[in-house]
Amino acid sequence: MTPPGRSAEEALAADFDDHRGLLFSVAYRMLGSVEDAEDTVQDAWLRWSAEDRDDVRDRRAYLVRVTTRLALNRLRGARARRESYVGPWLPEPLLDTLPSTDPAADPEARGTSAESISMAMLLVLETLTPAERAVFVLREVFGYPHAEIAAALERSEASVRQLAHRARSHVQARRPEVGLGGAGGPGDRAGVDAEQLARITGKFVEACYEGDVEGLKAMLAEDVRLITDGGGKVRAARRPVLGARKAASFLVSVWAMYADDPGRTREAATINGAPGVVFRRDGLLDATLTLDIDGDGRVRQVFLVRNPDKLARWDGESREGGEAGDAGDGRRGRIQHG
């Protein structure tokens, strides 16, 4: 029944928006792209608004199923495109400045831990097959039962259990310090909390600006990996920089190029659920920095995203002069109804 004072179309849109936070959460973890996740949710809305919904008993389960299938199709296409990507690929950063796309915006969503959307975890998920990734996200992050996942993927429950086991083993081999419980998503990294990470990140950036190579080396794990994503559109390392000495020297040399530029500023931010830093040039977002810290407080991975296509949505004004968060069709993180 349509609520009083609302048209059927308005009621339908409001019903969908009740589930939007969860649907975005699923899509972003599967795709590693805010834009692709928003497009997937938009496609789910189009399906939902055109379907005969009389036989849908559990709308939430139905919408998650549709979103998962759409994300799987989009992921397969995205992986083919990434084969020709210039330089290392990093997930599109998720800043906390757009509440409507916050993965934790849905109070019933279970995947609220910072680790489940960390750059490091999303990169590990990139190494799974699309089906394994879907099962891992639905099972380990959101706690869905195997039977429900089987229905979403149109596979047998036995097949889903096998995929879940493979995905879980794969992730644990690469992130052994992260607890996988299946009831609330991957837990926080052992021995590292947000306050400690923020403190280390601030000290790390100060050492870069001060040109303190030795100080940086002392903060880095010996096998540290520095990844910069410029997408071939701005200056960035075309390959990961490996090892403490090379990474420290690279960082200091890069910072030295911009140290005297009065148009460059930096500020602390929450990026992919964890403390990070955003850098601006003449007011426009130029880069995001996040760190992956081991249990001893040493930096083992550095993630610098500079590809302007992954940053423009977070500017106060986009590079084309549009509004913040504009995904190219005026959505600004909202579903377009009608």
From TrEMBL:
CDD domains membership: Sigma70_r4 (cd06171)
Ranges annotated as biased composition (Basic and acidic residues): 314-332
Domain RNA polymerase sigma factor 70 region 4 type, residue spans: 119-170
Keywords: Sigma factor, Transcription, Transcription regulation
Keyword check for ATP-binding: no
Domain RNA polymerase sigma-70 region: 16-79
Molecular-function annotations in GO: DNA binding; sigma factor activity
Keyword Transcription tagged: yes
Region (Disordered) residue spans: 314-338
Superkingdom assignment: Bacteria
GO biological process: DNA-templated transcription initiation
Similarity field: Belongs to the sigma-70 factor family. ECF subfamily.
Subunit structure comment from the entry: Interacts transiently with the RNA polymerase catalytic core formed by RpoA, RpoB, RpoC and RpoZ (2 alpha, 1 beta, 1 beta' and 1 omega subunit) to form the RNA polymerase holoenzyme that can initiate transcription.
Name the record gives this protein: RNA polymerase sigma-70 factor (ECF subfamily)
Lineage of the organism: Bacteria, Bacillati, Actinomycetota, Actinomycetes, Kitasatosporales
